[in-house]
Amino acid sequence: MHTSGRLVVLTGPSGVGKGSVMAKMRTLLSSATGPAPHDHASVGTIGDMPVWLSVSATTRRPRPGEVHGRHYYFLSDAEFDALVERGELLEWAAFAGNRYGTPRAPVESRLAEGGSVLLEIELAGARQVKAAMPEALMVFLAPPSRDELRRRLIGRGTEDDDAVQARLAQADVEISAADEFDVTIVNDDVTQAALRLVDLIAGH
Ligand SMILES: Nc1nc2c(ncn2[C@@H]2O[C@H](COP(=O)(O)OP(=O)(O)O)[C@@H](O)[C@H]2O)c(=O)[nH]1
Ligand SMILES: Nc1ncnc2c1ncn2[C@@H]1O[C@H](COP(=O)(O)OP(=O)(O)O)[C@@H](O)[C@H]1O
């Protein structure tokens, strides 16, 4: 059994299905052991190893249904500045007009306890993590095609046209950087992609 956890970075263009794969992983990993512990960032367990999903800070406004402290910590610009100045972010980056960053302390303490931690972050942040923690496993989630990515992004219906365009432009940049990652998973089927990710975290 794998007893010591690892840091896993999951990057992929907006709309590829990162959130959907995370949600599926949560179902797969908590069904084996009953409901996940009452903690917003718990994904479940693999054997006896807890798996955590880092909750990022962002200056983006919440979408309907998004909950502060669960999906993101939704911060003002000044609050985000303060985190940056105090060195409390492991990495941060601007994306499509907003800033996003990973609070450092929870990641460090959960890794120290032997858990695995997943960061679902964009390319610039992924590069910062790789530089700071070269042992991190870098995973790229790729769409079956650019057309399918566009369909998913528009189909989700959460962004206006300008935001969709900004995300698609950034998608091209991210997809061309896929070979910087240790593994690429093509998100054809959400369950298959989630199972592959579980295998990777388990060290297979
Ligand atoms: N660098 C960095 N990127 C993040 C972080 N949290 C989220 N992101 C990325 O920011 C981008 C935009 O996220 P979001 O606004 O939720 O849009 P969505 O990916 O289209 O659902 C995505 O690529 C996320 O992976 C973070 O803490 N740091
Ligand atoms: N494998 C898949 N096949 C078809 N549709 C998918 C798949 N994965 C995700 N989707 C859909 O694509 C849209 C974007 O997925 P989402 O998880 O929000 O992406 P991301 O978190 O990467 O921005 C959602 O409407 C979701 O239901």
Can you walk me through this structure?
The chain has a domain at 7-54 and 115-201: Rossmann fold (3-Layer(aba) Sandwich), CATH 3.40.50. It is globular and about 45 Å long. The longest helix has 16 residues, at 161-176. It has 204 residues and is α/β, with parallel strands linked by helices. The strands form two sheets. Strands 2-3-8-1-9-10 form a six-stranded mixed β-sheet, sandwiched between helices. Strands 5-4-7-6 form a four-stranded mixed β-sheet. The chain has seven helices and ten strands. The protein has helices at residues 18-31, 77-85, 104-112, 123-132, 146-156, 161-176, 190-201, and strands at 7-11, 42-46, 49-53, 57-58, 73-74, 89-95, 98-103, 116-120, 137-142, 183-186. Residues 12, 14-20, 152, 155-156, 187-190 line the site of adenosine-5'-diphosphate (ADP). Adenosine-5'-diphosphate binds next to helix 1 and helix 5.
Helix content: 25-40%
Q: Which architecture of one domain per CATH?
A: 3-Layer(aba) Sandwich
Evaluate the radius of gyration: 16 Å
- What is the name of the CATH topology of one domain? Rossmann fold
How is the main sheet built?
Answer: 6 strands, mixed
Ligands? guanosine-5'-diphosphate, adenosine-5'-diphosphate
Low-confidence stretches: none
Strand percentage, roughly?
Answer: 15-25%
User: How many distinct helices?
Assistant: 7
Number of strands: 10
Terminal Cα separation, in Å?
11 Å
Physical arrangement of strands within the biggest beta sheet: 2-3-8-1-9-10
Report the order of strands and helices.
EHEEEEHEEHEHEHHEH
- The coarse silhouette is globular
Subcellular location: Cytoplasm
Protein name: Guanylate kinase
GO molecular function, one term: ATP binding
Enzyme class: transferase
